[in-house]
Specification:
The protein contains 13 helices and 11 strands. It is an alpha/beta fold. Helix 7 packs parallel to helix 13.
Length: 344
């Protein structure tokens, strides 16, 4: 009889060891624009016995700052949303741990900007000038074909842009002009100012208040926005429309390509799960979900794009691209130069 307590203790240990464990939690730090279909997340959680916790931390710059400031005690296991404008800074601070996902083999080389695979490309999009098709049709005015056209008298007071010191698309458009004009970008902006370019603090103000084709019905028929905005105009139209009222100017170098990355944060205790989640983000199902969730394009060639994109968006053949290290070294100086040109 004295052996019974011992037996019960053994059985209890065995039962505990064999009992199913509750799901682990994997924390993903993202920018505020992150979105994914709930059904996909549920499938990943069920397959991997994990609970995904998404933490949104502001725009791409703000999210990166949070990750850097907390790198000794990471706020998350994964960071998504750093783009090529901030990539060099993210890599230099050592917040990422390399991960060689098997999906990398199918991603075109132009998207893979970190040879050490600390930051893996997930999606891309282009910042372009969008225009109100009905305005140009009604005026019988040809749309501009290049940057220089925007300084011509017939386009005076027709363009609204965002301040690059306060707006991500504003900064992207500034960098497109830097890529095109080099050191002459300040002179170009002085010409735009002389031709009545309007500057506002945010994309929301530019698109929804100033742009003539948006719900704001403003005075400018051209706005710095995203290459996917014409598709969004169709998706969210009320009443429904069959064709977007807007289109993009996609002449050589007129759009700036933004690539967004994901990486495993150093210090995670869930590295294996973090790798699985990155593989999931680079899977065909996730990549095909992104266009109508975040209005970006997938980086894996086998992922299809919805018809509303193919029918209503224009993808630039030769977008502006600047090396991330060059951006990191010159971003502040470019913004200061822009301020000098616009506020002499």
């Amino acid at each position: 009889m004295k052996s019974l307590p011992i037996l019960f203790g053994v059985f209890a240990i065995l039962f505990t060891a064999c009992a199913p464990q509750g799901p682990q939690t994997l924390t993903v730090l993202t920018h505020d624009s992150f979105s994914v279909s709930e059904v996909l997340i549920k499938q990943f959680e069920s397959k991997n016995n994990v609970k995904i916790a998404f933490v949104k931390g502001g725009d791409a710059g703000s999210v990166l700052n949070k990750a850097i400031l907390s790198k000794d005690a990471p706020l998350a296991d994964i960071l998504y949303g750093v783009d090529n404008s901030f990539l060099s800074r993210a890599l230099d601070t050592g917040i990422y741990s390399p991960y060689n996902s098997s999906a990398l083999t199918s991603i075109p080389a132009g998207f893979k900007l970190d040879p050490e695979n600390r930051a893996l490309p997930v999606d891309y999009g282009d910042v372009c000038i969008n225009y109100d098709k009905s305005y140009f049709d009604s005026k019988n005015l040809p749309v501009p074909n290049n940057f220089s056209d925007l300084t011509k008298p017939e386009y005076k007071n027709l363009l609204v842009v965002e301040d690059p010191s306060t707006s991500s698309p504003g900064l992207a458009f500034l960098m497109a002009t830097v890529a095109h004009f080099g050191d002459g970008y300040q002179d170009y902006w002085s010409q735009l100012k002389a031709n009545g370019v309007i500057v506002v603090d945010s994309w929301e103000t530019a698109y929804y208040t100033n742009f003539s084709a948006s719900s704001g019905h403003g005075p400018q028929p051209m706005v710095v926005s995203y290459g996917s905005s014409p598709a969004a105009e169709v998706v969210y139209a009320d009443p429904p429309v069959s064709e977007s009222p807007t289109a993009s100017l996609v002449g050589d170098g007129m759009c700036f390509r933004q690539i967004e990355f994901v990486g495993i944060l150093n210090g995670t205790k869930n590295r294996a799960l973090a790798g699985k989640f990155i593989d999931f983000m680079l899977s065909k199902s996730f990549q095909e979900d992104m266009p109508l969730q975040m209005y970006v394009y997938p980086v894996i060639p086998e992922a299809s794009v919805p018809a509303v994109f193919t029918q209503n968006t224009q993808v630039p053949v030769n977008p502006a691209i600047i090396d991330p290290a060059t951006i990191a070294a010159n971003r502040d100086a470019w913004i200061q130069g822009w301020n000098s040109a616009m506020n002499p």
